[in-house]
Amino acid sequence: MSDVLPTIPPDASDSLAVLEKQRSTAESFGIPLAVLLEITHRCPLQCPYCSNPVELDRSGKELTTDEWKKVLSELAEIGVLQVHFSGGEPTARKDLVELVKHASDVGLYTNLITSAVLLTREKLSELADAGLCHVQISFQGIEEGLADRVAGYKGGHRKKLEVAKWTRELDLPLTVNAVMHRQNLHQLPEIIQMSVDLDADRLEVANVQYYGWALKNRAALMPTVAQLDECTRLVEEARERLKGTLAIDYVVPDYYALRPKKCMGGWGRQFFNISPAGKVLPCHAAESITGLDFESVRSNHSIAWIWQNSDAFNRYRGTGWMKEPCKSCEFREIDFGGCRCQAFALTGDAANTDPACALSPLHETIFKQAEREAEGETNRFLYRNFAGGTLESGNDA
Amino acid sequence: MAGPRNISVSETSRPVLPRHAKLKYDETRKVWVILAPERVLAPDEIAVEVLQLCNGERNVGEIADQLAAKYAAPREAILADVIVMLQDLADKGFLTEVREKTP
């Protein structure tokens, strides 16, 4: 799974400015600092909020080892500094060590975003030797009853704890990635403590973003307003208390906000990802927007050309594409109208204002609906898989 | 295991960048950067100079000595600035220090 929304760090001093922040307002669209590589959609987990598209790429469509190596070399050459190996489950690819080694050889900082359940200590050690710089492990809860149910994978939670321990033993920095929703938010205090106990450097408290699989599962996942307020309070309190021990990044859910999120830092401004089949995408959910044609690294265009010139990247860049109320809005260059994928999923037109924005004519309706769902008793998941999803058995109807 | 957390930078600290924070010159953008998990920091010229001296052997006092000599500047002022900068980096989790092994 992957949840790599660009996050804003809590603070930045003058002498150590955070580069993303400085560049986000740049007029020209310089090549992003970090790129997300979704090297496969295969995954043993079935999380109902998976950020992969509902239509998954099958293994036969995946780029080959040589193709990924060529991509890595090209990324380093055009100025990308970091790559995130993600999926699906990146360790499901047998050539991961080889790819990490190649990335290190060409000077890229490498991050592994993993569910951890397929890793052995030996494999992790090989990855460390290949130059891996950072490991990010997803957790679905604090105890195996809930965590394994959310992941749809028995024994997963226990394995994750084990791999987290190995990660630190191998002196690799660890980030705990906790995806939060109605059914696990009550465990947040213990998740924070677990991260400290696992000797993690960072914790990402990432509230579910509702498109793709998560939108299908919204009724089972949407938190209440009270839960979210408590979540924010806990994060703020823990940030202060654990300063210097555990950095906490916080991705807020946008349904209950008045202003939409500046999704991906603005379309085509500071982020792209590459899908298992080699499509270069402005966001990992972008393929959910029909009518956009995404260029592939298998085409005869370079990645830099695709970033600068392809129709898909330019379609929603800047503000020229906007309609009202975005067009004349004073916040248009601050949030760029929110999330295009969410606008498409909820309104049928990606150029509409993201309904997460209070200025969207649909905001009120959707907010009320989400509130009703949050108060509801529908806890049953639709699990993510290649068959288009499987309904959880045994839980309520 | 990595170095200790909750570092309080003082004159006797011997700071060093941890494995997951890499100081690198970015040829494309012509700037120095610190690569860290999910972050790219842009240290200013002075910070780069300080960090290049942080090898886990020199202590902060010695770093201040070197910079004071190089720039013919008051040592106390430099020491104060260096400590503030390194403490900021430590608070962000991108600095560790070498400590004497306790028997």
Please give a structural write-up.
The complex is a heterodimer of chains A (397) and B (103). Chain A is built from 15 helices and twelve strands. Chain A has helices at residues 19-23, 65-78, 96-105, 121-129, 144-151, 156-169, 188-197, 213-216, 218-221, 225-241, 303-309, 311-315, 332-335, 340-347, 363-375, and strands spanning 16-18, 34-38, 82-86, 109-114, 134-139, 174-180, 202-207, 247-251, 272-274, 280-281, 382-383, 390-391. Chain A starts with 15 loop residues before the first strand and ends in a 6-residue tail after the last strand. In chain B, the strands form two sheets. In chain B, strands 2-3-4 form a three-stranded antiparallel β-sheet. A two-stranded antiparallel sheet of chain B has the order 1-5. The longest helix of chain B has 17 residues, at 75-91. Helix content of chain B is 37%, strand content 19%. Chain B is globular and about 35 Å long. Chain B contains three helices and five strands; from the N terminus they run ββββαααβ. In chain B, α2 packs across α3. Chain A binds chain B through residues 4, 7, 9, 13-20, 22, 30-31, 33-34, 78-79, 81-82, 107, 109, 111, 133-134, 136, 168-169, 171-173, 175, 199, 201-202, 243-245, 247, 249, and chain B through 1-2, 5-7, 18-20, 22, 24, 26-29, 31, 33-35, 37-44, 46-47, 85, 88-93.
